[in-house]
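#lab-general

N.A. 3:47 PM
ok so I finally got the sequence cleaned up, no stray characters, all 134 residues accounted for. can someone with queue access submit it? mine expired

B.Y. 3:52 PM
send it over

N.A. 3:53 PM
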Amino acid sequence: MVPLFIQWIREGNPLVIYGDGKQTRDFVYVEDVCQAVKLALVYEPQHPEELVFQIGSGAETSLLQLVDHLRRIAQESGFQFPQPKFEPARPGEIRRNFSDIRRAQERLGYRPGVPLEEGLHHTWRYFAACDHAP
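B.Y. 4:20 PM
back already:
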C-alpha cells in the first residue's frame, strides 16, 4: 500500500481508499523485518511451535493517519497532495489488523526501531532517487 500511495502522489493521482479510512494496518519498515529475520536465523527453539512469530511494528495505524503522514512528506518535498478518493468498502475488508510481536520480543529480542514517519521518509526518498536514476 505504501509504495502504491507514494507512486500515486508523485504522479498526481488521487489516493483510492476503500471504506472510511479508519481501518487499521501494521506498517513496518523493511530494516525492522530484516532485523527479525537475522534474529530468527540464530534462534534455537525448544519446540517446533516456537518457530512461529508475528513481525511488524506492533502498532495500529489507520489509513487516514497514513495519508496524513504522506501529505506532510509530499508537501515538504514540494508535491501537490491529491485529495483522497473514497470508494465503497470492499466485501470482506478487514477492519483492524496489527501484529502481536510479544513472542518475537521475548524470544528473539526483536525490537522494531524505525518509527512509521521515519520509514515513510526513507521510502519517499528511495522513490525520489529511482525517479532520477539514469
